[in-house]
Design a protein that fits this description.
ABC transporter transmembrane region fold, 12 strands, ATP-binding
Length: 601
């Protein structure tokens, strides 16, 4: 149980957008996520085929009606064929309408499944993967990128499915009407196809740049919104406006490049389509004049030409969307295919027999890309019923050490054990039940005071919440709120002060009742009196648990059972306040910088 567990799979190397967009990404993604919707997809295809065949039959009926009814003045024939044409048209409209409905439903279902899987995957990511992708990029991938794929799929199911049937069927029927004039269509189609090919070639790199620009503007917006108080405090509105203007200009320029490509080749294809219609009318007029073609056949031929060229144009609309959807699929696939660097073990330990003794042995850790390790050979023991404090200068590695204990990162060397079991062998749910971390930056979710506290235990009663609030010295201000536990909290906890936010975060962890409590400088926003009252309440209410406290203030940790002094990632000393003050130069220097000699003693 205490041996070193197998190392988790290494994370895949970060790919560039170019590497994340293989040709098969979107095909593979669609094949995988359309499989559960195959029945609806099959129904959409059948309805599109019926609708397209019906629309192809109408021009032939119209030609017969003109040639044998209108031209000869046979009213009965006109009425009879007109009624049949109306019936075929109703079938075409109904089939096409239902095909659009089921196609859109299929695409939206795919989008729903993609978002759910992407969210689930991000939930499994450790801090390493979050740093690699970045929050703005992940948000863009879950929203804009999925929207690109869904939009392209809607267009494909409503337009691209009908295009080959309409093109091939229209060409065959046009050929049956007049073979020589069909040559005009055969000459026009390759020209439009070349235009489509150029669109695809030009749009792929432009789309990659555009998606990166969207990431950039989302990053600026997110930083501006979350850092608005700092911006106001330093009166940096102008600087932030300049940053946004630059990101906005880059996105605008990228969008214009994409728009210019679409406009140029779209106009080119449209021009050739119109020239084809002119050529058909010109040649057809001559053939009608010499009696080799009937006017009804010319009308039908023009209709088929419009359908064929329309099918090609519809295909071009899909192909215009395809490059952006392809890039988006690659970016989504990159997230879905990334193996989390911290994964649940194959056979995890799900229960612990002890009371929660924490042992840190020879721990070394270095952040990805860093030249030097943040922690080197760190040892620490936190026993149930005792308080262990960690103190050191800024950058000594205190917060990193606390993040390693609940396995937010994995150690490079050494072991972190709870009751003799390495945390890398423990089930993630067991870690959450056993180790409670109050982070340095307390974060509250949008909701109510009660819903935030129940993150610690969803089944906690109101009495449990009030007990935790009493211990955290937060019951007073919560009772003073308009709705008590039902008072609405803004996202991030912006509707409460920093000290209130810290106490609510402490109460949230107390609700979970873990065996080991980790307080990462969690009392920094509290005044001295509240700090002392809180520590006294903790000593009383969680006396049986192991506590590890990281703090900057000596007054917060001087009464701890054991104090660990970190200096440049190494343990510089361990002992009580009096022992370290007498024999540890690093600790003595920290104490002397904060307290007078009389206060220190």
């Amino acid at each position: 149980m205490t041996g070193k567990p197998p190392a988790p799979p290494a994370p895949k190397a970060a790919d560039s957008d170019e590497e994340a967009s293989p040709e098969g990404s979107i095909v593979r993604l669609l094949a995988e996520y359309l499989r559960p919707h195959r029945r609806t997809l099959a129904l959409t295809v059948v309805l599109q085929i019926i609708g397209t065949i019906a629309s192809l039959y109408v021009p032939t009926l119209n030609a017969d009606l003109v040639n044998h009814g209108v031209a000869t003045g046979d009213t009965a024939y006109v009425l009879r064929h007109g009624a049949f044409m109306l019936a075929v048209t109703v079938v075409q409209i109904a089939a096409s309408g239902f095909a659009v409905y089921f196609g859109a439903r299929t695409a939206m279902g795919l989008g729903r499944d993609l978002r759910a899987d992407l969210f689930t995957q991000v939930q499994r990511f450790s801090a390493t993967e979050m740093d690699r992708f970045g929050a703005p990029s992940l948000i863009t991938r879950a929203t804009n990128d999925i929207t690109q794929i869904v939009t392209m799929l809607v267009m494909a199911l409503t337009m691209l499915l009908t295009a080959p049937i309409a093109a091939i069927g229209g060409l065959a029927l046009a050929l049956s009407l007049d073979v020589p004039m069909t040559g005009v269509l055969l000459a026009a189609i390759p020209v439009v196809a070349v235009a489509i090919a150029f669109i695809v070639i030009a749009m792929v790199p432009a789309s990659r740049v555009m998606q990166r620009c969207i990431d950039g503007i989302n990053r600026v917006m997110r930083e501006h919104i979350t850092g608005i108080r700092v911006i106001r405090a330093f009166v940096r509105d102008g600087h932030e406006q300049q940053r946004f203007s630059e990101a906005n200009a880059e996105l605008t320029a990228a969008s214009l490049r994409v728009g210019r490509v679409q406009a140029f080749f779209g106009a080119t294809a449209m021009m050739f389509g119109n020239l084809t219609s002119i050529a058909i009318v010109w040649i057809g007029a001559g053939r009608i004049a010499d009696g080799t073609m009937q006017i009804g056949d010319l009308i039908a031929f023009l209709t088929y030409a419009g359908m064929i060229l329309g099918a090609v144009m519809m295909s071009m609309g899909v192909f215009m969307m395809a490059p952006r959807a392809k890039v988006a699929a690659g970016r989504i696939r990159e997230v879905l295919d990334t193996d989390p660097s911290i994964a649940n073990p194959a056979e995890p330990v799900t229960e612990l027999a002890g009371l929660g003794e924490l042992e840190v042995e020879g721990v070394t850790f270095r952040y990805a890309g860093a030249e030097e390790a943040v922690l080197r050979g760190v040892d620490l023991v936190a026993r149930p019923g005792q308080t262990t404090a960690v103190i050191g200068s800024t950058g000594a590695g205190k917060t990193t050490l606390l993040h390693l204990i609940p396995r937010l990162f994995d150690v490079d060397a050494g072991h972190i054990r709870v009751d003799g079991v390495d945390v890398r062998e423990m089930d993630r749910a067991l870690i959450a039940r056993t180790i409670g971390l109050v982070p340095q930056r307390a974060y509250l979710f949008s909701g109510t005071v009660g819903s935030n506290l129940r993150y610690g235990d969803p089944d906690a009663s109101d009495d449990d919440l009030w007990r935790a609030l009493e211990t955290a010295q937060a019951a007073g201000f919560v009772r003073a709120m308009p709705d008590g536990l039902d008072t609405v909290i803004g996202q991030g906890g912006t509707t409460v002060s920093g000290g209130q936010r810290q106490r609510l975060a402490i109460a949230r962890t107390l609700v979970a009742r873990p065996k080991v409590y980790l307080f990462d400088d969690s009392f920094s926003a509290l005044d001295t009196a509240t700090d002392a009252a809180l520590r006294a309440a903790l000593a009383r209410d969680i006396a049986d648990a192991a506590q590890v406290i990281v703090a900057q203030r000596v007054s917060t940790i001087r009464d701890a059972d054991r104090i660990v002094v970190l200096d440049a990632g190494r343990v510089a000393g361990t002992g009580t306040h009096e022992e370290l003050l007498a024999g540890n130069a690093v600790y003595a220097e920290i104490v002397n910088s904060q307290l007078t000699l009389q206060e220190a003693l």
